[in-house]
User: Fold this.
Amino acid sequence: MKKSARWVADHYFGQSGSRNWRFFGTARDKDGKRITNWLCHASATPVTRYHKIKGDCNPYDPAWELYLEERLSVKMDKTLRGRRTLIHLWKEQGGLCPVCAQPITKMTGWHNHHIVYKTLGGTDRGENRVLIHPNCHRQVHAKGFTVSKPRPAKAASPTQPGALLHA
Assistant:
């Protein structure tokens, strides 16, 4: 049975706020009350810009380790799962950089450092990562230092920056 244009307009389109001709559907909730589900607007979806990876980047070349770690930090910062991981690492370290033992804040920034480089078989798991300041991160890579994971703090004592820096 063919429905008229007026019937379709009345049953599937409505006014929501200052917007006319907004598509909607109806359903019933668990109590049997009728609810209206409005189609979301494409303009309400934020634009996400993606940066292409450099063409000559080689994930197996240690020279590209710093570049790939920076890309991973940016990627993690934008996802909820990544934020949870960053918060976990930050809390695990007591909010301190394991290299300089200074607080890591939004103002100072941070880099997500792999303890065992991915090029040497390291993973992206939390056990293989620490958060360190961007300047400390450059020094670690430039001077060939290794950073170890801080030891968990005891419940009764304040958090200690238990990481070691080796030349």
